[in-house]
Amino acid sequence: LGGSISRALHQMSNATVIDEKVLNDCLNEITRALLQADVQFKLVRDMQTNIKKIVNLDDLAAGHNKRKIIQQAIFNELCKILDPGKPAFTLKKGKPSVVMFVGLQGSGKTTTCTKYAYYHQKKGWKPALVCADTFRAGAFDQLKQNATKAKIPFYGSYTESDPVRIAVEGVERFKKENCDLIIVDTSGRHKQEAALFEEMRQVSEATKPDLVIFVMDSSIGQAAFDQAQAFKQSVAVGAVIVTKMDGHAKGGGALSAVAATKSPVIFIGTGEHMDEFEVFDVKPFVSRLLGMGDWSGFMDKIHEVVPMDQQPELLQKLSEGTFTLRIMYEQFHHILKMGPIGQVFSMLPGFGQELMPQGREKESQAKIKRYMTMMDSMTNEELDSSNPKLMNESRIMRIARGCGRPVRDVVDMLEEYKRLAKVWGKMKGLKIPKKGEMSAL
Ligand code: GDP
Ligand code: MG
Q1: Residue of the nearest CA to atom 16 in ligand 1?
Q2: pLDDT tens-digit profile of 158-168?
């Protein structure tokens, strides 16, 4: 995909005259690529029309950065499609909220329910899981197993066959137990069928969820729009989670799901494990969709803001795929000391919404400072090691004592490091573009 887009843009930059035909050829090539990434045909066609309106042929003919102009226009259009114009309903910690998960069987609901619960539990919520899937044999066992592993209270039944009844009982029980995030997992069935949607409507009516999350497998291709729309028509879907983004699918169906439900994507699933779950970030997602890699926007920016001679070592280390605690420390240092670099880093997957959510800069800075204080109590060996097993219990205890912070905080910091190391690990083998070169497109 990335290949064909970059080929298209290349052809264009080589053409001496930028006339309408060249632009059309280029857009057609990109259209094909986006369709291959499962972006819905109608969305691609609308985008094409918009781009033609936005991109002024005279500008292109005169300007030397033609590729950049087109790239930016496409990038912005795709970002726009992913923004439904309003954020997902925000739940309040400490106040009981009910979240209902819907989606076809196999889309990843049960797995994602647990990930969602676990994610919030780590942030201080009191989640609980209710299994209202009475359709599939073994559904309750699966949820029970996941919940037990994550130490999250659960409710379900082996004998009761009425999903509405179980859902209501579970929600009531956990409200009494002061859980503030009550998650209702539902059944899916293989096909979109009337009985399924009727069941979803009934469960929703009975449990009055504050938020309904539509779970979508990233590999369902062009079926995404109809599927999302069908669920939206029976229950008030308010957010989308796209699963299996660790696979081959580029996830273009997410654009359809947003368009069909008028709701934002809030998380993506990136594996079968509990912690393989990421807050959704529009820009890296679109980069990936265009085959630009998660890093190109970042690389472009880094060349704009950071003099090349100040960062070669970092880029070198990143391309080797080693992300040590010391690198994290250095980057935190940059973020705090130098405003613009802070902004650059907020474009990085993992650093963005997760570490430095918009509008909460003060809090983020305080957190980063706290992390750095803890790292000041680490030895050189610890800072430079790329072996995650090195940080054993006794080292953690020593660091906690050294910096006068609870062990829990040190564990938090190391979790953050692991998360970032995983994201940055994808940098491995990256060809570092020289200043002035286009990165991926
Ligand atoms: P449900 O029928 O909608 O409840 O789906 P499940 O939660 O049972 O998931 C179906 C299959 O997809 C299981 O084998 C999961 O382990 C797997 N799965 C779910 N999410 C992901 C993901 O993000 N990545 C990968 N690789 N597998 C996933
Ligand atoms: Mg399930």
Answers
A1: 272
A2: 999 999 999 99
Domain regions of the chain by residue span: 2-81, 97-287, 293-425
Q: Which residues, including other chains, have CB under 8 Å from residue 264's CB and lie 6 or more apart?
A: 82, 83, 84, 86, 87, 88, 239, 240, 258, 280
Tokens for 91, please give them: 């739940």
Q: What is the arithmetic mean of pLDDT over 125-133?
A: 96
CATH class of 97-287: alpha beta
Task: Provide the whole-model pTM.
Answer: 0.74
Q: Contact 335/409 with Cβ under 8 angstroms?
A: no
**Do the Cβ atoms of 348 and 315 come closer than 8 Å?**
no
Homologous superfamily of domain range 293-425:
Signal recognition particle, SRP54 subunit, M-domain (1.10.260.30)
Q: Are 167 and 91 in contact (CB under 8 A)?
A: no
Q: Regarding the domain delimited by 2-81, which CATH topology (the fold level of the hierarchy) does it fall under?
A: Four Helix Bundle (Hemerythrin (Met), subunit A) (1.20.120)
Unique residue bearing structure tokens 């819907």: 102
Give distance in angstroms: CA of 112 to centre of ligand 1. 7
Please give the pLDDT value at position 102: 97
Tell me, what's the pLDDT at 434? 47
To test the pocket of ligand 1, the residue of 111, 119, 245 to mutate (highest count of ligand atoms within 8 Å of its CB) is 111
